[in-house]
Amino acid sequence: MSILGKTQTYRELKRKIYLVLIPLYILALFSFRLFSTHITPFYEFIIPFLVLILIINWIFTFRDQFFRAIEIAMLLVLSVHHLLEVWKFIYMYDTTISTYMIWAPLFYMFVFISFQGKGLLWTIIIFLTTIVMGLINFSFVITQITLIHFYLASFIVIYVLNNFRKLILFYIDSNMLKRLAYYDPLTNIANRRLIQSWLEEEVKSSHSTGRALAVIFLDVDHFKKINDQHGHGVGDEVLQQLTEIVKNAIGAKELFGRMGGEEFIIITGIL
Questions:
Q1: Could you report the per-residue pLDDT of 88-103, keeping only the tens digit for each?
Q2: Which domain of life is it from (predicted)?
């Protein structure tokens, strides 16, 4: 798969995530507005504003328009909301940050999903900003232990998300390296190196179990002539179509690979 193809796939995955998470976020805001016994003027303003912005973002995400601009807009809106929640708790002597703590990890998750490596820098900036806000007015905070727990929980979430991102990247890189080492990039089937490994294993298994083993070699007649007359692009298509034909014809237990050029091999047991 090309780099462009992988980028588009990741973009589509993010889009699907947003299409689910944005309505859940809106639902959470609505439920807070409907079931809270006391709504401050702060929430009277911020909740309708957030809901409106999120609905607009969801519509554009659903229509797949201005995708990157929508991501940046959501980042800015959610970042401001995050900072306002902390500011309200610290400077308005509110105790409702415990409710927002449930949703704070979602903010950090969004940042990491949207901006990957750069997401760490942004979350650190936001996190340090909240710490500075707390230090300035810490002695006046009503429930200082809640604020401390909020900081600790935020740090843990950022740390875990960043390392989880590294783990995923390592897993992807290792799989890509393995695929490059053992699979033919044109046909996406086993290459000579993997075939040789298969042969060694199958021969050992055949000797130990007494099971008969068959090795079938295939090649394309006059393949050089195809390349010379029609070009290498057509030659590649011939190899790809041949690969699909053979894959559909053999059983699930047969091993199929490309030795190189127009030469293929099938390893199969004989019952």
A1: 877 776 655 667 777 7
A2: Bacteria
| Span 22-54, pLDDT tens digits | 898 888 888 877 776 666 777 788 888 888 988
147-177 burial, b at 16+ Cβ within 10 Å, e below that, comes to beebeeebeebbeebbeebeeeeeeeeeeee
Token pair of 40 as six digits: 């401050």
Q: Is residue 175 domain-shared with residue 250, that is, in the same domain? A: no
Provide the domain count of the chain.
2
Q: How many C-alpha atoms does 192 have within 13 Å on its Cβ side?
A: 5
Residue 187 sits at φ, ψ, to 5 deg, of -105, -10
255 and 204 housed in the same domain: yes
Task: Give this prediction's pTM.
Answer: 0.58
Taken in order 151, 152, 153, 154, the sign of the CA dihedral is positive
